[in-house]
Specification:
- The protein is of the alpha/beta class.
- It is built from 9 helices and 11 strands.
- It has helices at 3-15, 18-25, 29-43, 59-86, 103-113, 126-134, 196-206, 220-228, 273-285, and strands spanning 48-49, 56-57, 89-94, 118-123, 140-143, 152-167, 184-187, 213-216, 234-237, 248-252, 259-267.
- Strands 3, 4, 5, 6, 9, 10 and 11 form a 7-stranded mixed β-sheet that branches.
- Helix 7 links the parallel strand 7 (184-187) and strand 8 (213-216).
- Helix 1 (3-15) packs across helix 3 (29-43) and helix 5 (103-113) runs antiparallel to helix 9.
- The radius of gyration is 26 Å and the shape is elongated.
- The termini are far apart.
Length: 287
Amino acid sequence: MELRHLRYALAVADTRNFTRAARALGVSQPPLSRQIRELEEAMGVALFLRDTRPVQLTDAGRVFIDQARQIIAHVDQLTTAMHRLSSPRFIVGVVGSIMQGAMPDMIRRFRDACPQVEVELVEMTTVQQVAALKEGQIDAGLGRVRIEDADILRTVLYAEPLVLAAPQGEDTARASLSDVAGKVLIVYPSSPRPSYADQVLALLADRGITPHRLIEVREVQTALGLVAAGAGMAIVPESLRGTQRNGISYTALSDEEARSPIILSQRRSDESAPALTFRAIGQSAFA
């Protein structure tokens, strides 16, 4: 049995038709059918019911296809990893709300420390980062949400203070979380969850603070645009003060607990030099 046998079987299972499977694979149908027969003979079982339309899997076929998918996925991950080693790249998933602050300096310092490594930044949520790390698509993630996973090493780089972003003209000289009570609150991102929005809502819920109404948006820039338009308030990380936008006043929150962590996520098994260097520079840059 060879990998091509597995890929052929997966194509037939996915299309439920030998002709369409052959077309998708770029081969003619007779060789495809012959390869499937050879595979079934090697396994000692029938994998497909050929006298049905569409083609159906046998009980043994369902077990085989499930295992074949896992094998092909692992092989593809291994291939990706080997390609990276031959052409060093370090891909970092980043949530949009930490593009300000110390993150750019962290990336510059990493580039200086590892000039032979090509660094690529990809915007993605923390939830997406964890999945991408496990699939080998990225090498590190910088996010805000605590997601427990045995395969992922989380390092808190900084507990960033939060500020109240309010339309200019409102009295926010001394702000606290309680100022949100009875007001329209804009939170982000609306999906996927859990997200930074859940951190903000949990802070309010723990103190029994209830906004008059919630507006959920997908991105921080949309939230700030609505604040500037007078649609409501938003609780945002302090580093976003640097996002100059007319019509918004930023005020520090007096609540000590009003903080959001900046979390570095890495594969627990990754002890490569770039991974260790990235972690060390991150801890220094945010110190």
